[in-house]
Amino acid sequence: MIPTTMNQMWTTMGSTLASFMFVWAIIRQYCPYELRRFFEKYSHRIMGYFYPYIKISIHEFTGDRLKRSEAYAAVEAYLSSNTSKSAKRLKAEMVKDSSNLVLSMDEYERVTDEFHGATVWWVLTKALSPGRSMSMSYYPEQEKRFYKLTFHKKYREIITGSYLDHVVKEGKEIRVRNRQRKLYTNSPGYKWPSYKQTMWSHIVFEHPATFETMALEPEKKKEIIEDLVTFSKSKDFYARIGKAWKRGYLLYGPPGTGKSTMIAAMANLLSYDVYDLELTAVKDNTELRKLLIETTSKSIIVIEDIDCSLDLTGQRKKKAEKGCVDDEIIKASKERMKEPKEEGGSGSSKVTLSGLLNFIDGLWSACGGERLVVFTTNYVEKLDPALIRRGRMDKHIELSYCSFEGFKVLAKNYLRLESHEMFDMIQKLMGETKMTPADVAENLMPKSPQDDPERCLSNFIQALEEVKEEEEAKKKAEEVKEIAATTKELPQENKDVEVTECSGEQ
Ligand SMILES: Nc1ncnc2c1ncn2[C@@H]1O[C@H](COP(=O)(O)OP(=O)(O)OP(=O)(O)O)[C@@H](O)[C@H]1O
Ligand SMILES: [Mg+2]
């Protein structure tokens, strides 16, 4: 009895559908456009009464088509991790910079997911993009891809209330876990517009430096780490106080004191990407702004040796004296550009101090959020105060010569020694000399297989003694020079006195 009823039901449904399709084909063929639209609209409504399922689409690109949707990327990550076991047709891709094949569901593949008793179906679909206009012709993608989520209307609240949040949250976590961090640099001589969608080139960021391996006083290290971690967790705080979620760090100190190493340690601590901005390769302020817009959140924007990048020092004073600041800087930059450049340099940077100031904390700098801006310099006193004032460069960190505490970190890293009888001697010598962490590290490095920790330590003591002797000799030479200068000046002073006296007598 039941099979007969089922058969009858299927037959009725089939014939109804066939009639509907027939009518629809006729309407499509012969009806004017307005009537077709009208029919489409109402047929969807009618279908809505009988069709118990709800569909949600998550498109790959957002409205302006320049930026990939974060929701799409999160869903993609969620599905490739959670459903690749159940999908029957999988796509294997060698993701750029990765050595492994990454599996994800193939187009039109349908996978099922369960959440708190609700069953949902995901399909990856594509449709032709309506934006195949001339203006978009240089974008290679012409197809709109989107995920379609289907579920019964009785689960509406669960799905829209918590399932979608769960998918996006888990997808984002998966992306952060699997993410290979990148080191970006701006390519000189870049032409815009071009087939490339970004002005940055990148490689995988693989620097091994960490705060643990950095030679730094423990309190200073702790303070910097706490500052960074607090920043990374302060999204709500920055929103509450009405400030863009970014922070500036100025790292200054002599060469070889660990400024670049600290940037790598910062990136590793927070799992941020690094944008190493070569300012001399940036054509002008507009290009600088474009570069800024293209940086992503969770990143560190670095300008190394800011004092050498462009002639940005003390230009504000000249403004008051000579008029237009920009003209002065452009002139200075041009002079610099006449000098032989490294290969690849654009040789025509017109970036100005005001452009750079806007880059750091102008209106555009707020887009994206969660970014650190780091400047390094060997000569902090050369920089324009406007560039490094608090608010732009919020934290100034001086990296200086190696302390005994710093040496202990390096001895642990390089020689696996936490203490040794020679340490007292080293502590005394380090108190009397100035050696950069880079030099200490080099001296502790074993140079041959026979170099055991003791030999490395005695080599280091020898190096310290040599530095001490050099410093003492230099000091003595300076003292001699000073004495010579004063004794040279003396007769001159006496002569003046004599002349005065003579003239007084006359
Ligand atoms: N504080 C430090 N802790 C551990 N290693 C250090 C430290 N400072 C320097 N080094 C070692 O010295 C090398 C040079 O350091 P780094 O490039 O960070 O110096 P820098 O301050 O950026 O120099 P410059 O001003 O010339 O750019 C690094 O490869 C690192 O191994
Ligand atoms: Mg450096």
Automatic annotation (TrEMBL):
- GO biological processes: response to stress
List the source organism: Rosa chinensis
User: Which cofactor does the UniProt annotation name?
Assistant: Mg(2+)
On the tree of life, the source organism's domain of life is: Eukaryota
Q: What is this protein called?
A: Putative ATPase, AAA-type, core, AAA-type ATPase domain-containing protein
Q: Which InterPro entries match?
A: AAA+_ATPase, AAA_N_dom, At3g28540-like_C, ATPase_AAA_core, ATPase_AAA_CS, Mitochondrial_chaperone_BCS1, P-loop_NTPase
What PANTHER family would the database entry show?
BCS1 AAA-TYPE ATPASE
Question: Reaction catalysed by this chain?
Answer: ATP + H2O = ADP + phosphate + H(+)
SMART domains, per the entry: AAA (SM00382)
Leader sequence range is none
Keywords for this protein: ATP-binding, Hydrolase, Magnesium, Nucleotide-binding
